[in-house]
Amino acid sequence: MLSSTMDQKNSYIEKQYIGRDYIRIAIRLVMAAFCFAAYVYERDRDHTVDLFLVVGFGIIGVSIILLFLIQYKIKIENKLVIIDGLWSSKPVKIDLNSIVKVRKATYSNYIFNNPVYNLHRKGSIRFYSSGRDAVVLTDRDGLEYFIGTQRPNEMYLVIQNEMKG
Predict the structure, then answer these.
(1) What domains can be seen in the chain, in order of their start residue?
(2) DSSP 149
């Protein structure tokens, strides 16, 4: 009985949040600051200026909600990498028995990267929320899985251990 509960143990769990990308947070804060500045500057001219105040607080409110909204969760267990996305998306299961190569890489050289879940592009499948780091898994057919992570070293080591064990 004890061994079956040990098999159920997750080797690695990481949650990626939509609203925790620093560049996008900065963009939203600049937009909110613009709304507040326009409200202060135009305060004495027109009654519709209150809309700037409402929009500014709306941007701040949406930003706070996005900080807690999970885009996807990565679990590594029983020689499987399971990436579970938002409510209606199907979980993606990558069998580590079919993986021939694992490496750490930079997700992209661009400063701005859109969050993606299960994006098929140029012989690769991409999962990204924020940050610059990724772990790349290559299967027997040459298909690469780019998995964006905040903890690339830990994820890389756990995948290596799962593949050996």
Answers:
(1) 78-164 (2.30.29)
(2) -
DSSP-based three-state secondary structure for 95: strand
Residue pLDDT, tens place only, 74-107: 999 989 999 998 777 889 999 999 999 999 998 8
The pTM for the full model equals: 0.78
Structure tokens at 113: 């990267």
**Cα 81–82–83 angle (5° rounding)?**
120
**pLDDT range class, residue 2, cuts 50, 70, 90:** very low
The residues pairing with 135 across neighbouring beta strands, listed in sequence order, are 104, 147
The Cα–Cα gap between 109 and 117 comes to 19
Handedness of CA 48, 49, 52, 58 (dihedral sign): negative
Q: Which amino acid would we find at residue 79?
A: K
Across the chain, which distance is largest between two alpha carbons, in Å?
Answer: 74
Angstrom distance (rounded) from CA 100 to CA 119: 21
Residue 72, judged by CB atoms within 10 A of its CB (0-12, 13-18, 19+), counts as buried
How far apart are alpha carbons 153 and 146 in whole angstroms?
15
Residues 6+ apart with CB under 8 A from 151: 14
